[in-house]
Design brief:
Helix content: 25-40%
Oligomer: single chain
Shape: globular
Order of helices and strands: HHEHEHEEHEHEEHEEHHHEH
Radius of gyration: 20 Å
Largest sheet: 8 strands, mixed
Strand content: 15-25%
Distance between the termini: 34 Å
């Protein structure tokens, strides 16, 4: 998508174990039921993973779904696409084959026609980088194609650090404002993304299920915690430069927090939400997706 940031593969690899631990397994039964109702595609389940990065969604989900799968990995970064394809699982939960191809392009051009033959759309940490119109376009394309969507790890706008400091709240508020910024002429949704997506999919007849998917970071995740802290504080400083004197320097917030992290004395919960949108069943499609989700 035009204007989207590029993410270093090192950051994506660092966060992958926390992402895998956070993803909501409770959404898998209703997803599997919906896919069973759509079974019969010549290549089995055809999954389009939007903004795939290094392919973490595929590595997590492919081995948890039965049946042959063909993944179409979408991203604007050719280096990430190459990594994603090379590291995709080769077998599904029942040992049937998993194959993958890549497509480079602008996600804003995703249409129902582009989703022809697709049985599932997935994405991770993507919704909050979209605008309200782009989310509406995604919901429209999925609804018109009758395609479920599993959209994982969207920021929820809540962070909890232990031990607590009063400045945590100011930094969190500044970070959330930064997530909602206008970038390249696009007004990002940030922590409003899940609510906007729920409204967009439900308006088009889908059943929407959400589940919490928080990162829970402690001493074993110190490297990720430190990298996340730097990015969290940098975004807050960019949004509210007046915070700078309290964030920086030998006695500043960032140095204190990084020292506590290195000593194994800091825990962080970064709240995310996973969303599953199940389209309105079509006449004669068999099992109702909405009923199967209950």
């Amino acid at each position: 998508m035009a204007g989207q940031p590029r993410f270093a593969p090192e950051w994506l690899e660092l966060r992958e174990p926390a992402d895998a631990a956070a993803r909501a397994p409770g959404l898998l039964p209703p997803l599997s039921a919906a896919l069973d109702a759509r079974a019969g595609a010549p290549r089995g389940t055809v999954i389009r993973d939007l903004g795939c990065g290094t392919g973490s969604m595929g590595r997590w989900l492919a081995a948890r779904l039965p049946g042959p799968q063909h993944w179409i990995l979408h991203d604007h970064d050719p280096a990430l696409l190459a990594r994603a394809r090379e590291t995709m699982p080769v077998a599904a939960a029942d040992g049937t084959p998993v194959t993958a191809t890549t497509e480079r392009g602008d996600l804003a051009r995703l249409t129902a026609a582009a989703l022809a033959g697709t049985t599932l759309v997935t994405a991770s940490a993507l919704l909050d980088l979209l605008t309200r119109d782009e989310v509406a376009g995604l919901a429209e394309a999925c609804a018109a194609a009758g395609c479920p969507a599993l959209l994982a790890l969207s920021v929820a706008g809540r962070v909890e650090l232990t031990p607590y400091e009063p400045l945590d709240d100011e930094i969190g508020a500044a970070f959330n404002d930064h997530q909602r910024r206008t970038a390249g002429g696009r007004r990002l949704l940030g922590p409003d993304a899940v609510a906007a997506a729920t409204e967009a999919f439900e308006r088009r007849g889908a059943t929407v299920l959400t589940r919490p998917s928080p990162w829970r970071l402690a001493a074993p995740q110190a490297a990720l915690t430190a990298a996340w802290l730097r990015g969290w504080v940098d975004a807050a400083r960019d949004q509210r430069p007046a915070l700078g004197p309290r964030l920086d320097g030998p006695d500043g917030y960032l140095r204190r927090r990084l020292a506590a992290c290195a000593a194994g004395e800091l825990t962080v919960t970064v709240h995310h939400t996973d969303l599953l949108a199940l389209p309105r069943p079509r006449p004669g499609s068999g099992t109702s997706d909405a009923r199967a989700a209950r």
